[in-house]
Amino acid sequence: MQKRIMIVGAGPVGMVCALALGRQGFDVTVVEREAGPVMDQRAASLHPTTLAMLGELGIGETIIDKGLIAPKYQFHDRVSGEIVAEFDLSTMADEFRYPYVLQYEQYKFTDDVSTRYADEIGIAVLFSTEATQIVQHADGVTVTLEHDGAQEVREYDYLIGADGGRSIVRKSQDIAFEGFTYDERFVKIATFFDFGAQRPDYAFRNYFSDPNEWCNLFKVRGADGKGLWRAIFPTRVGESEEEALSHAGIQGRLQKFFPKAGDYDIAYSNMYAVNQRVAATFRRGRVLLAGDSAHVNNPIGGMGMNGGIHDAVNLSEKLGQVLRGEADAAVLDLYSRQRRKAAVDFVQAQTIQNKRLLEERDPEIRARHLRDLRDAAADPERARAFMRRASLADSLKAAASVT
Fold this sequence. Notes:
Blueprint: E1 4-8, H1 12-22, E2 27-31, E3 45-46, H2 48-56, H3 60-64, E4 68-70, E5 72-77, E6 82-88, E7 101-103, H4 106-121, E8 124-126, E9 130-137, E10 140-147, E11 150-156, E12 158-161, H5 168-172, E13 177-181, E14 186-191, H6 195-198, E15 205-209, E16 215-220, E17 228-234, H7 241-244, H8 247-257, E18 266-272, E19 275-279, E20 283-284, E21 287-289, E22 295-296, H9 304-323, H10 331-359, H11 363-378, H12 380-390, H13 393-400
Helix pairs in contact: 1-4, 1-9, 9-10, 10-13, 11-12
């Protein structure tokens, strides 16, 4: 009998997992409570290591022409206006098949996989469908699905939770989500204003250090392909969502960052809480976690979606071995150990460090951080080491060493 796998969550991690398992010939069903790929404005950066994995799955070249190729990224001192350091991934062409970051919004990526490749290899994607109850037993998992008020009970050999930070799957298995939530929230603003035209020395990916209000600024193509610049700022102590997202709040932040005549033309804005958390385990019996259901982090460095896709590739390989009888189910514990190490030691550690670097208020420590960045960028070997870690290449190597 053909092995059946349920994946809860049709985001980029769930769909990559579905694609990788479907290409191995397994019966894969993906359920998503939303009505279709959500046009949210979250992750948009695909690192070289991730692009290599997508290339192996046969979809790398498909998406590259749709995104913005960003070989360079910069660190700025917002106080002085100086570009402190620039790192150029094109110098890593001897190590990376794709020596750049692809700026490609996750909702577009998800739509690509769910609409093009799902039909091609027979993956069933059920939108507007929610997994409301998950019970596992010795030889499978029973899932209760709800669609338009009607319930249906199905049986699967394994279930994968890729359903985000508030994961129903993780909660159903009583798996602790260890970590913390930042006091401040993050404000994301997208504008049609072309910073690159005004500042051609800016890269497509920029990090601005400022003890009072740091900023991330990066470019994406946007819905119409003409280009948007996204800016991310921290909220102030006591600042309400109403204040932050008001016309005055949005315009004030952007005008302080880059003064110009007239208002900024805003495409969208939102505010969200930010966590640094990792599940205590990524496996409980026949239920497995990947992506945000297993780990969440702040977005500085663009590591969350990439780490999740790395989970999906690792998991699909090992689960495929188990389902074909080539490996014992214990190899799924190895998946948990490997990917949890990558999440804790690299994604969590690096994103926490990135935030501290940008927000540092002690003048001496801040000056030292900026000097270290400048020196690293100026030294070819240190620059390569910096880019390996930032691209999650080191995390993959460390995870692979776990036995």
